[in-house]
Amino acid sequence: MTQHLNIGDKQFDLSRAIVMGILNVTPDSFSDGGRFDRVERAVEHALRMQEEGADIIDIGGESTRPGAASVTVDEELERVIPVIRAIRQQTSLPISIDTSKPEVMRAAVGEGANMVNDVNALQAEGALEACAGLNVPVCLMHMQGEPRTMQQDPKYDDVVQDVTDFLRQRYLACADAGIDRSNIVIDPGFGFGKTLRHNLDLLNRLESISGLELPVLVGISRKSMLGAILDKPVNERLYAGIAAAVIAYQKGARLFRVHDVAPTRDALAVCDALQHS
Ligand code: 9MG
């Protein structure tokens, strides 16, 4: 496997955990002031996550929650670009842009984003070409269906095999488009068109995906799979999210997309220490 992942001017050692802090800039987040206030609060949150030990900030302007509707290119640009610009004025911390739209990928990287996180695995028209031209790392995530309908009765022959095959195919499509292997990260997409049974199978057999020998990112933080296990609301899922991150690490994941940076960082420090002992 690639030993390092270069994001912006940082070189990450893939034998250690890399923590990606989540910064959603949808209208329901940071929403009680005007636009300037929203940007300012988003920047504050990003800087707080940096202090808590985030290695990357993942900025998204379109909700990908189950049932979420899509937004236009212009709307998404209006949400994310001022925030990327403002963060860039204050820190060189790597920024990832969470988008499936090639126009947003290009504009975000133009403003200083250093990575693309695409829940649609570059399947939108022009996305492969955009990323090949941008020459930044790309996270390819598996999703069955689309956010609006994906949780309506998802089905697989064998979820682990199907997801692994999909990620292999998308990797090959990237290679054909001229995206360097060293710029590819893969993600099984917990909660994206998956029942609790599917999510547990993926976590339990995550080695199958790690077996593709590409860096593996997981996003489990606060997700409904944890809610289903615990029967608890979103604000009471921290410890379960940490347990899931530690299990994923043991099965080969090294990038962790999380809301709660400080506690996740501490838990994964134990994993790193054990790995390097
Ligand atoms: C944007 N987004 C929401 N959940 C995610 C996950 O699990 N992985 C990645 N890569 N992105 C996600």
User: Would you identify the CATH architecture?
Assistant: Alpha-Beta Barrel
Under CATH, the homologous superfamily reads: Dihydropteroate synthase-like
- Strand-pairing-aware structural class: alpha/beta
- Shape assignment: globular
Reading off the top of the CATH hierarchy, the class is best stated as Alpha Beta
Task: Tell me the series of helices and strands, N- to C-terminal.
Answer: EEEHEHEHEHEHEHHEHHEH
The residue ranges in which pLDDT falls below 50 over 5 or more consecutive positions are none
> From the structure provided, what is the oligomeric state, counting identical versus distinct chains?
single chain
What is the helix content? Answer: 40-55%
Count the helices. How many?
10
Can you offer a commentary on this structure?
It is a single chain. The protein is an alpha/beta fold and 277 residues long. It has a single domain, classed as TIM Barrel (Alpha-Beta Barrel), CATH 3.20.20. The chain contains ten helices and ten strands. The protein has helices spanning 35-51, 73-90, 102-110, 127-134, 159-177, 196-204, 207-210, 224-230, 238-250, 261-275, and strands at residues 4-7, 10-13, 18-24, 56-60, 95-98, 115-118, 138-141, 184-187, 217-218, 255-258. The strands form two sheets. Strands 8-7-6-5-4-3-10-9 form an eight-stranded parallel beta sheet, with helices on one face. β1 and β2 (10-13) form a beta hairpin. The chain is globular. It binds 9-methylguanine. Residues 60, 64, 98, 117, 119, 139, 141, 187, 189-190, 217, 219, 257 line the site of 9-methylguanine (9MG). 9-methylguanine binds at residues 60, 64, 98, 117, 119, 139, 141, 187, 189-190, 217, 219, 257.
